[in-house]
Amino acid sequence: MVRMVTLPRIALVGRPNVGKSTLFNRIVGRRKAIIDSRPGSTRDRNYAQTAWQGAAFELIDTGGLLFETDDPLLGPASEQAERAIDEADLVLLVVDGRAGLLPDDAAIAARLRKSGKKVVVAVNKIEGGSDGVAEFARLGFDTLVPLSAEHGRGVGDLLDEALAHLPKVEAGEEASAPLKIALVGRPNVGKSSLLNRFLGQERAVVSPVPGTTRDAVDSLMEKGGKRYLFVDTAGIRRQRHLKENVDHVSVVQARRALERADVAVVMLDATEGLREMDATIAGYAVEAGRPTIVAVNKWDVADERGLKQRAFTEDIRDRLKFLSWAPVVYVSARTGKGLSALLAAAERAATASRARITTGALNRLLADAGRRYAPKAAKGNAPVKILYATQLGVAPPTFALSLNHPVDLHFSYRRYLENQLRENLQLEGTPIVIKVRTRKH
């Protein structure tokens, strides 16, 4: 059974460009939603768990509601906003105090009244006093709160008012931290579709138009008593293809998502095979030091395309040599095949990345490795001996070796030691860092 973790939910709703994402970022306390002066920057529902005055809640940012549009992406964004309204326990209707009351504000208010949800009107862009607030009383809601999301004024008052209508969940009562999984890959490899299949609902906008997902959308899930936080990132593109500033920000956010993830899932498209950009994206995950799973999506069409797992895996190993330690899982977002195996692989990789070994066991393991295959220096002919080894840290597992000469180890010997550590410590799916220290013997 898959269910969402239950915290009181507050949805930010309004027409485009009234400052919903700015307010979202102000409340959450970090630059999470993309801020862009053009309507439609936020297309998906964007979720974050946060707290105010000791009360925990989940905040949902949405795309602007536009009832008449020919834009193939703004239409689905409106659908996402309506789903957020359905999910929410309370709705913050964000309006622009500088622009004044507009017909779309009234149309959204009418739809909210039909929903029966509790609504608080957040009159944004009010820099001082309450001028420009009164006219929004015509929307028909009891509570109007003036604020400036950009400058932070009035945001606390807004949260006080909103949370007064919701059951209080003490901050810190939430269960143990979920496993954070970043979904990364080229545009249109199926990241959003995979997320939606996991969650069993259309949470991220799925569209055949490349680049649909621009924000990194956090989605919390429970399955089998375990909690997972998926970060569905915008598709990463080559720098020269980043014609829009907002797409450049998406690349930055994808890399940030990797930085805060426990595990990276690098998604490939079975129908297109490996591309050069796939290697670049996988490199980002390695640079971030994250345990990594390679997920080959759209495998449901493998038979009709004549694709074979063994040959595809060999191609991955050949072209992504630096990810030789990453498990390869074949999945289908369309049918759901392979999803349990993907979660299990992510769990194992996360556990491996946090593995610790005692100093005694580590030195015995390396001594055995040295007897089988003598250490080689990167340069010079002086015999090399590993005097001592210790583990410096985890996530990823990091080891320091003390050598008898001020030389570095040959890359082939480093790889040999990595393989010995993986085989003996079950470190599949995580990078390993080996640092070399030298001292006079």
Q: Could you please describe the fold and organization of this structure?
A:
Helix content is 32%, strand content 21%. It is built from 12 helices and 16 strands. It has helices spanning 20-28, 74-87, 103-115, 155-163, 191-199, 245-260, 276-287, 302-305, 309-319, 339-353, 359-372, 411-425, and strands at residues 2-3, 9-13, 46-52, 55-61, 90-96, 118-124, 144-146, 179-184, 217-223, 226-232, 263-269, 292-297, 328-330, 386-393, 398-403, 433-438. It has a 7-stranded mixed sheet with strand order 1-9-10-8-11-12-13, with helices on both faces. A 6-stranded mixed sheet has the order 3-4-2-5-6-7, with helices on both faces. A 3-stranded mixed sheet has the order 14-15-16, with helices on one face. Strand 5 (90-96), helix 3 and strand 6 form a beta-alpha-beta unit. The model is unreliable at 1-5, 31-43, 67-77 and 204-214 (pLDDT under 50).
